[in-house]
Amino acid sequence: MRKLLFIVILFFSVVGHSQKKSLQTKFTSENIVIDGRFDESIWQSCPIATNFVMYRPDNGKAIAENKRTEVKIAFDNDAIYVAALLYDDEPSKILKEITKRDVFGTSDLFGVFINGNNDGQQNFQFIVSASDGQADSVTTDASGDDYSWDAIWKSKAIITAFGWAVEMRIPYAALRFSDENKQTWGLNFWREIQRDRQQYSWNFIDSTIGTFTQQNGTLEGIENIKPPTRLFLLPYSSFYTNASKGQKTYGTLKGGLDLKYGINDAFTLDMILIPDFGQTKYDNQILNLGPFEQQFNENRAFFTEGTDLFSKGNLVYSRRIGGSPSRSPKVTTNEEVIDNPSSVNLINAFKVSGRTKGGLGIGILNAVTERTYAIIQNTDSKATRREELEPLSNYSVMVLDQRFRKNSSISFVNTNVTRNGNFRDGNVSALVWDLNTLKNTYNLSGNIKYSFINELADKKGTATSFSLSETSGKYRFNLSTEMVSKNFDNNDLGINFETNYYTLFGNASYRILNPTKYFNTFQTNINVYTQFQKETGKIQANNINLDISTNNKQNHYFGLQINASPLESFDYYEPRTENRFLIFPSKYGGSFYFSSNYNNKFAVDIRPSVTILSEPGRNSFGFYFSPRYRFNDKFSLIYNFDFSRRNNNKGYIETIDDDLNSATPATILFANRNVITYSNSLSGKYSINSRMTFNLAVRHYWSYAENKNFLSLEQNGRLADYTSYNSNKNSSFNSWNADLSYSWWFAPGSEISVLYRNNAANFQREINKDFGEKLTSLLTNEQLKHVFSISIRYFIDYNSVKSKF
Questions:
Q1: Are the C-beta atoms of residues 395 and 321 closer than 8 Å to each other?
Q2: How many other CB atoms are there within 10 angstroms of residue 596's CB atom?
Q3: Euclidean distance between CA atoms 512 and 521, whole angstroms
Q4: Which residue from 72, 544, 656, 668 has the least number of CB within 10 angstroms?
Q5: What confidence tier does 662 reach under pLDDT thresholds 50, 70, 90?
Q6: What is the pLDDT of residues 61-79, one digit of tens each?
Q7: Burial grade of 407 (CB within 10 A; 0-12, 13-18, 19 or more)
Q8: pTM exceeds cut of 0.70
Q9: pLDDT of amino acid 83
Q10: Beta pairing, strands 569-571 & 582-584
Q11: Contact call for residues 551 and 57 (beta carbons, < 8 A)
């Protein structure tokens, strides 16, 4: 009888989880004060959303009664209102670290996920922490959470005797929905109990299915509302003071305007007029000894916010816009460059993006950069001339993305760069597909790309990829292949390192879906990757990787990686000469990592690694160590130390001609070298409250490559001793960056930020191995450059201004 009762309860539990929940809302004409106290009468009559279900780690388990969550929603003509009671039988243990916006820290969370079209395609997520902080994002299954998106909404969280409470006001201008009289919205609520590392949702989210946004419940009862005029202005003014050795201190005043306009209920126009990116995060430059450029993160808000559509096909590397000039200055023997700009100024940019109710996403991005010149001086006459390095240029992106059946899409993407005059132009198009079965159990994805470069001679290239994956259950797999032609080139607005190859890739994984006696989570993956040179069929890369990652009952994380390249490979990139290759030996290695529970005041991350090559004496090892300490809810520090050493590394030095009149191939020189790298960084924050924060970021980086002897590359790809070369090709790069900033969100969407930054960098051929001296040599008045800036940005909502008049 007990077994039968258990089966019946289990059956109804599963059925309940599989059904979409629905919450009824009510209209109010009251003035609701967002204070977390729920004094208004409307909260006494609204229906309650409750019976939350665990998402992680024990998927499907009902929330405990002493942690129950109750949520109500009301609405008026301008906004929806959310009231949430989050019960906790030990309120003194609620974690509530104070952080800046969109950073969660160590804190309990409550979130509301809304899809105004109820189409399973995208959620607008509004999250409040127990420390009264805010975070918001746009979320899709394809791209995950985009926290660069910011909306203007109100919230208040307070700690109570029974747990904590949250009250929210989300204006319709922060959402997307149709103009129908009766609305049905997709809805889910989210709760995270940080000390237990447990996540719950109101409508059950089945973790065995490869989708998140399609598992919403519904919100019923919203009637007779209209999408508002979405017009937001963000004027700003900034003042910069710059100082350095040998340069007179000077100040610069800047001003400009960002604009957002809702063209209709689906599409939004974003514009920047006279942009100012002076307070963006600095780039972590490295000693780059390889054949490819260093890729940097995008830190400019305009190019990071709402980029879901523009990431389709992986064709856009927005750092190209306003990046390095296309050409380098050319000088004669009696000339020198006295001003060589490292970047190009952006004049203005705009983007239009959105998605119709029928699932058609449209994205258009356009940016214009100014003409850029180097100044060259004649060393004899002292006369100067200007040389154009970058003309007036236009960058554009267009994306058409048709979603269907809520979980699949086919996209067309085009990027185009047009430069004035005789500079190079580039155009790339792609057809991209992402197809999922109705139950989200299998995925078929891929793309076909075509590039056209208009330079001295037209260059055309193609790239294709296909992938088949199982995306649900404990056991999953992926099989994929890729082919890139020799002339494929998307580097005018994208970034691509390797061409002229085809690949075969396979992956198999196993994971537990519910906790066991010892583990909350456990996952293992094995990956096999092989790359072939397209014309010769030679193996360019071969890798076998085994990854194991776990999270134990104390919420400590452990990981083990074992990797091998059992076959010699033919590297066609390092020689930097067409049709020449370097034979790279087989190698074996691995790493281990440990990350202790961040809920503790003191936590640490550790990762040692080692790689052994089949060539005697050639190996590498590294060590990463990062302790962190949270002094209290306001103050925390994180230190990072990263060390690596590569012994007997073989790297390209230069190409020389023994005899210019001879048909003998040029001599390609390599160095046998040791490469040592130290990176130290310290980051910290002190939060006065959730809207006022001091932040510190300091990084010192030192890497050097010390050549032991020189080698020449033979036609068969092997290296031979080359004793007739004695130039100093050692490399030592030493850099320092320090940022101390203060940020105050003094009104919704409005911010005052103060930044002091100093930085220095030094590249040398002579190697001084005194670490202390290398560091202190940068911290002098001769080396350091100083910037002090104040920026004020004020958010203006057309609807608020209109209502006041």
A1: yes
A2: 17
A3: 6
A4: 656
A5: low
A6: 999 999 999 999 999 999 9
A7: buried
A8: yes
A9: 98
A10: antiparallel
A11: yes
Nearest CA to 762 out of 748, 776, 744 is that of 776
Specify whether the backbone of 712 is left (phi greater than 0), alpha (psi in -120 to 50) or beta. beta
The C-alpha angle 802, 804, 805, rounded to 5 degrees, equals 70
Beta bridge partners of residue 430, listed in sequence order: 413, 449
Residue 123's Cβ-count burial label (10 Å; 0-12, 13-18, 19+) is buried
User: Which of 525, 524, 485 lies closest to 505 in space, CA to CA?
Assistant: 525
**Is the CB of residue 610 less than 8 Å from the CB of residue 623?**
no
CB distance 148 to 433 below 8 Å:
no
Nearest-Å Rg of the Cα atoms of the chain is: 29
C-alpha to C-alpha distances, 176 to 117, 133, 134, 289, 357, nearest whole angstrom? 7, 24, 20, 48, 10
DSSP annotation of 686 reads: E
pLDDT number for residue 9? 38
Which two three-digit tokens encode residue 37? 């106290």
Nearest to 504 by CA among 537, 471, 475, 535: 537
Beta-carbon contacts of residue 329 (< 8 Å; ≥ 6 apart): 337, 340, 374, 376, 387, 389
* Cα gap 56→726, rounded to integer Å: 61
Average pLDDT of the chain is 92
Q: What sign has the CA pseudo-torsion 223, 226, 227, 232?
A: negative
How far is residue 355's CA from residue 410's CA, in Å, rounded to a whole number? 14
Cα angle: 738, vertex 744, 745; to 5 degrees: 130
DSSP 315: -
DSSP states along 718-753: -EEE--S------EEEEEEEEEEEEEEEEETTEEEE
Tell me the per-residue pLDDT of 589-648, one tens digit each, with 9 for 90 and over.
999 999 999 999 999 999 999 999 999 999 999 999 999 999 999 999 999 999 999 999
User: Can you read off the two tokens belonging to residue 240?
Assistant: 């910069």
Identity of the residue numbered 88: D
φ/ψ bin of 354: left (φ > 0), alpha (ψ from -120 to 50), beta (otherwise): left
| The two structure tokens encoding residue 600 | 């503790």
Task: Report strand pairing: 182-193 vs 109-115.
Answer: antiparallel
Nearest to 703 by CA among 646, 665, 777: 646
Note whether 324 and 342 are within 8 A (CB).
Answer: yes
Q: Work out the burial of residue 6: count CB atoms within 10 Å of its CB; fewer than 13 is exposed, 13-18 middle, 19 or more buried.
A: exposed
Interatomic CA distance for residues 676 and 678, integer angstroms: 7
Q: Which two tokens stand for residue 316?
A: 């856009």
- Residue 355 burial by Cβ neighbours in a 10 Å radius (0-12, 13-18, 19+): buried
Distance CA 76, CA 296 (A): 45
pLDDT band at 188 (very low <50, low <70, confident <90, very high): very high
Q: Name the maximum alpha-carbon separation found in the chain.
A: 105
- What gap in Å lies between CA 674 and CA 671, rounded to an integer? 9
State yes or no: pLDDT of 805 exceeds 80: no
Q: Label the pairing between strands 123-129 and 109-115.
A: antiparallel
Among candidate residues 470, 462, 469, the one with its CA nearest the CA of residue 502: 462
DSSP assignment of 327-346, as one string?
S-----TTEEEEE--SS--E
Could you give the 3-state DSSP secondary structure of residue 481?
strand
Nearest to 739 by CA among 721, 759, 723: 759
The phi and psi torsions of 697 (rounded to 5 degrees) equal -140, 120
CA distance linking residue 446 with residue 497, whole number of Å: 19
Q: 373-417 pLDDT, tens per residue?
A: 999 999 999 999 999 999 999 999 999 999 888 889 999 999 999
Asked whether 186 and 202 are in contact (CB, 8 A), the reply is no
**Tokens for 708?**
């032991």
Query: How do residues 216-236 score in pLDDT, each as one tens digit?
Result: 999 999 999 988 888 999 999
Q: How far apart are CA 650 and CA 298, in angstroms?
A: 32
**Gap between the Cα atoms of 364 and 359, Å rounded:** 16
